Amino acid sequence: MDGFFGAFAVAIHAVWSDSGYFVMNMNNIIMMIVGAVLLYLAIGKGFEPLLLTPIAFGCILANIPNNGFDEGVMNAISMGIHMEIFPPLIFMGVGAMTDFGPLIANPNTLLLGAAAQFGVFVALYGAMAMGFTSSQAAAIGIIGGADGPTAIYLATKLAPEILGAIAVAAYSYMSLVPLIQPPVMRLLTTKKEREIQMGQMRHVSKFEKIVFPIVTTIAISLLLPAISSLIGMLMLGNLFRESCVTDRLSDTAQNALINTVTIFLALGTGLTMSGDAFLKLATIKIIVLGLVAFIVGTAAGVLLGKVMCYLSGGKINPLIGSAGVSAVPMAARVSQIEGQKAKPGNYLLMHAMGPNVAGVIGTAVAAGTMLAMFGG
C-alpha cells in the first residue's frame, strides 16, 4: 500500500511540475487579463468582434506556459503570418467585396487617400526620434493607415520582434474609428462645410471597372515590386467581382476564404502576444505612436478636403477626406454619419468610398515605399 501511495504521489508531483500553474509568472497573468479585456471590448462592446475575439483568445493561449505550440496547428498558423501568406489572402477578399466605382468616377479622391498617409510618415520620424531603428519605425508608422493586414505584412518583413504590438495597435484603432475620427472631423470643419451635399457621381462602365484592377496592378507592381503580392491579390479579388464570369470565385473570396483567413490571421496575431515579448516600454510607445499616426492621417485627409472644397467652389464636403484611411468601409460610414448629423438626408457614403478605397491602395503604396527605403 505504501508503494502505491508513493507512486501516486510521484505521479501527482510530475503532473504539477509539468503544469502551467507551476511555472506561470506575473507577465503571463497580466497578458491573460489583457486578453480578457479585449474579449470584453469585442463581445461586450462590439468593437470589431470578428478581429478582436480571435486576437484576444490567441493572447490568452500564448500565455499558457508549456503550451507546446512549437508544433502542430498553432505553429502552422504562426508560420502563415511569418511566411506572409495570410495578409495577401485577406486582400483578395477585400478586393472582392470592394466597389472601386466611386474612385474611378472621381479620381481626385486619390489625393485624399494619399493625404491620409501623411500620418504614416509623421509616426515614422517620431518613432526614430524615440530610439527605434529605422526598420522598426517604418513598421510602426504604417499603423496610421488603419490597415491591419498591411501593418502585419510590413512588420513581418521589417520588424518581426514587435509584430504583436503593431498588430494589436493597428486592429485596435481600426475598431475605434467611430470614436477617434469624429472629434477630429468636427474640430477641423465648420457646420456649413459639414452640411455640403455632393452631386450625383457619373456612371462607371463595366469596361472601366474591369480595366482598372489590371492597369493598377501593372503600374503599382512595376513601381514597387515588393508589394505586388498585396496589390495583385487586392485587384484579383476585385476582378473576380467585376468580370461577372467568376461569380463562384468572387463569392468564395468574399465569404468562405476571407472568413477562414481572418480567423487564422487574428489568432496568429494573438499568439505573438506572449508576456515576455509584449510587456515592454516599447509597446506603450508603439501604441501611442500609432494613435498619433491615425489622428494625423485623419486630420490631413480632412484638411486636404477643405482645400478641395474651396477650389471646387463648395462642391466637395471635407468630411469625406477623413475616409482616406484604409478602414473600409468603417471610415466611409463615419463620414456619412457626421454628414447626416450636420444635415439630415445628406448622403455622403458613396462619395466617401472613393477616398476610402484610395486609402487601401495608398497604405499599400506607403508600405512598398517603406520596404524600398528600409528593406535592405
From TrEMBL:
Keyword Lipid biosynthesis: no
Record-linked InterPro entries: OadB_MmdB
Coiled coil (UniProt feature): none
Transmembrane segments: 27-43, 85-104, 110-130, 162-189, 210-236, 256-279, 286-304, 347-374
Membrane protein topology class: Multi-pass membrane protein
Main subcellular location: membrane
GO molecular function, one term: oxaloacetate decarboxylase activity
GO BP, one annotated term: sodium ion transport
Cellular compartments per GO CC: plasma membrane
Keyword Lyase: yes
Top-level EC class: lyase
Keywords tagged on the record: Cell membrane, Ion transport, Lyase, Membrane, Sodium, Sodium transport, Translocase, Transmembrane, Transmembrane helix, Transport
Origin superkingdom: Bacteria
Enzyme Commission code: 4.1.1.112
Pfam families, per database record: OAD_beta
Subcellular location(s) per record: Cell membrane
NCBIfam families: Na_pump_decarbB
Protein name in the entry: Oxaloacetate decarboxylase beta subunit/glutaconyl-CoA decarboxylase
Organism, scientific name: Pectinatus brassicae
